[in-house]
Amino acid sequence: MSYKTKLIIALGLVYVVWGSTFLGMKYAIEVLPPMMVSCLRFLTGGLLLFVFTLWKGYGIPNMAQIKGAVLVGIMLSGIGNCTVAFALRFMPSGLVALLVATLPAWMIMLDFWFFSKTKPTLIGLIGLVVGLFGMVYLLDLTNPAHADAREVAIFPALLVFAGSVAWAYGSLKSPYLTLPKPIQSTAIQMIAGGLFSLTMSLLFEDNHIKAIKNMTLETYMAVIYLIVIGSYVGYSAYLWLINNAPPQLTATYAYVNPVVAFFLGWIFKGELLTTRSLIASAIVLIGVILMTIGRRKTASIE
Fold this sequence. Notes:
This protein has 13 helices and no strands. By secondary structure, it is an all-alpha fold.
């Protein structure tokens, strides 16, 4: 298989699979508490994957490698996905995916403040401003009188932003940490994220046993899809991309995923968007594209 073919397949998987996980979580949380879904998804998937690595002869990582993978796992699989699962209870899956698409903004700011100290380019700054304007318009923050009629719930939206900050920090911190081999690192990250989700679920959610008893075939299929397709296939494709494709090309998933999530939410869940949401979505996606171009310009200069 040629490099170009692998690239197309990997991009297609990340585009479609990660865009579809929002719908998968939407189905799962109809019966299960949101953070329990994250727990089942990552703890089950991580344990199975870790056992597989032992069977393949990887051995037990040292303590430094485990600590590094655990930190990244809590930031990404734990905080990042718990907030997304929670927000899906209050708004359409496409809008949640759109909020997550602001990730490049957090990456740019955190990278400048805490890591490379690289100043954003002019294009990147314009993208930040455009994206911020789109979010203010989407959340309707300029008109408090519309608080009860907002399509986007403010508190869940803020949680998604917090989760995106955690995801951005974990992604930026990862190269500075001692980590196991990629597949085993993925397994430990998933286990750590699953244990974090379990802790949050036990603290803030209830009726766990009742929810498990009420699981339908649809619920089981959604959870299995999130584990096998979302975590194994999607994440493996993403790992291949970040190691073999230009960063600016890999980053395009940030503005393709919301489109996929919008489309699937409309087909399978009948999720309809208001004019305000559609306009805001276009503004935010333009901002994200500009930020991605800005990061490419910075990489070229360096």
